[in-house]
Amino acid sequence: MTATPLLPDDLSAEMDRLGNRPYAEIGVPMYLVLEDLTGTMPQPLRQAGDPELAAAFTKAAEQVAAAKGTLEAGDIARIIEVLADRSFLSRPFSDLSDESLATK
Amino acid sequence: MTDPATDFARGPVLRVVNYHNTPFARAGQYDREFAALAGRFKPVRESDLDEWLDTGCWPHDRPGVIPAFYNGYRNNFDVARPLLERHGLVGWFFAVTAYTSCPANDQPAFTSTRTLATVDGEYDDPRTALSWDELRALDGPHVVASHTRNHTRVALDDAARLEDEIVGAQEDFRRELGHPVRSFAWLFGGRYGENPMADAAVGRAGYSFLFSNFNVQRLPKPRR
Description:
Number of helices of chain A: 4
Strand content of chain A: 5-15%
Order of helices and strands of chain A: HEHHH
Oligomer: heterodimer
Largest interface: A-B, 46 and 54 residues
Radius of gyration of chain B: 17 Å
Strand content of chain B: 15-25%
Number of helices of chain B: 9
Largest sheet of chain A: none
Number of domains of chain A: 1
Number of strands of chain B: 8
């Protein structure tokens, strides 16, 4: 899926790094889970879930909760952002915007 | 809030890249990003989400990605749109209808009283919102969606304001596009099922999909 490990060595530092970028002008990758509330979904979706992503999220959430003592909605969003940043492409998506910042 | 790990394991999992302003100064960055996304993913339309949920199968040979543009900024049309089209991607433009309807000279005051950041000095005139003509041009090649009427925080027990933000926005789309839009993103990422008053307004407006911080929910058919 990706050449980049899903979880960085220093998760907290990576969450801080991503959170300090200019969000109003950059693309921020995220995973969203599709949910059907119509009651018409005929069957369980085939090959729809991502167990590797789920496991990485669980591990990251445990790390953050252990460090902070709690896990807030903002932490969850930032963890998912880290995972998405590192798995959408073969290198971190944020590298593409960081290159622009470096040339300014 | 549901447990993300459980949700990821169950799926389906959508890839979304969230944008707001897309200033001219960063066009090269967006070009690289869209090229990289197009090399790996397929564009997504609302009909793809319907088919995925109806059949249990994602209808394409590669997974999809949604580049989502929030707030309805003019530079989305001028900068992001041509780059999306160069790379064969479908953008989802979540517009704020009163911002689009606001006269150009009044838009600086409109944005200054809301959480709408703008880029200084990009244009010779004060318009920073997508125009209705631009939204009509996006409607079809891309997905036009609703991000409320005013982009203001509303008390969740204020029925009149909820109606204005949720149903009123849809009325604006019906009038200007000639049809309702199917997707809605509530301010600050709230989910369907968290507030009965807001849910009822979403139902009256006739939206099919609700984008929130962690989910895209296909909504129950409205009761009439």
